[in-house]
Design goal:
single chain; 267 residues; alpha+beta; five-stranded mixed β-sheet; 5 helices; elongated
Length: 267
């Protein structure tokens, strides 16, 4: 039987957490035997075979994940994803739930599609609107910023500047998760004909209208004030004027989000 994940949410019922990470329903499972299953892999674009291991009570392992079966019938199941370390369930981190429906139930009983069922719900939209309003009221406050599902876009307006978002590679998987790449977009920017040669790493807050504000940077205490002025000057003189800045959005709602920059100036 084919089962499709139609909803993934935290234990509060929302698909988004307080910093903007979205739980996406992407699983497609085909049970081929009592002890084996095929799971669709987006990376491989294929169904991959996994054995099903029963641990204890209602806890199972398959598809490289631990689950607790919360409910199960012929047409639906509710799974709780478990954070397991040293064979012990960390209950406080096991707060994500997956709802799956059978293919026949979706088509014959609900008369709809998987894509339609996977769309965000009204509660998600209301939550995102509230967080977006809060972030845009406090565009210079990192604590009020919210990671955008569709990240900031930086488009050069002149040939003397380039801006490229860093891609998430297989090597990055060793030290970072795909979630980090989603939550903290990183850009490499090169400015030709700058006032001098320089290289700085810092973060920037981009509000819902596309205006940039300095975020965090590293400097010794005695140089922090002067470094902040230099970095804000680079933002105001170069980045804001030489780049078309499209703010990040979630569910189509513009919000204030944080991006990481590596800016190199060439005299």
């Amino acid at each position: 039987m084919d089962f499709f994940e139609v909803r993934r949410s935290f234990d509060n019922g929302l698909a988004f957490d307080t910093i903007g990470f979205e739980q996406e329903p992407i699983w497609h499972i085909n049970f081929i035997h009592d002890d084996s299953v095929m799971v669709f892999s987006p990376d491989s674009n294929a169904m991959l075979h996994y054995d099903i291991y029963h641990d204890q009570d209602s806890i199972f392992f398959f598809g490289r994940e631990w689950f607790r079966v919360k409910s199960l019938d012929k047409d639906s199941m509710l799974l709780q994803r478990l954070a397991v370390k040293s064979k012990r369930v960390k209950e406080e981190r096991s707060n994500v739930y997956m709802k799956l429906y059978s293919k026949s139930y979706i088509l014959d009983s609900l008369h709809t599609t998987v894509e339609e069922l996977r769309k965000p719900r009204r509660v998600d939209t209301l939550f995102i609107q509230e967080r977006a309003d809060r972030s845009n009221r406090n565009p210079g406050n990192i604590d009020s910023s919210f990671s955008a599902r569709n990240p900031v876009e930086l488009t050069p307006l002149y040939s003397t500047i380039s801006a490229k978002r860093r891609s998430f590679t297989d090597d990055d998987r060793l030290t970072q998760s795909a979630a980090y790449h989603y939550l903290y977009p990183e850009f490499d920017i090169v400015i030709d004909r700058a006032y001098k040669d320089f290289y700085y790493e810092f973060s920037v807050l981009v509000d819902g209208s596309g205006k940039m504000r300095l975020g965090k940077f590293v400097a010794m205490d005695e140089f922090k004030e002067s470094r902040a002025k230099v970095l804000q000057g680079i933002i105001d003189v170069y980045l804001q004027n030489m780049l078309q800045v499209k703010p990040g959005t979630t569910l189509g709602i513009p919000l204030t989000s944080l991006i990481m920059l590596r800016v190199r100036g060439k005299k």
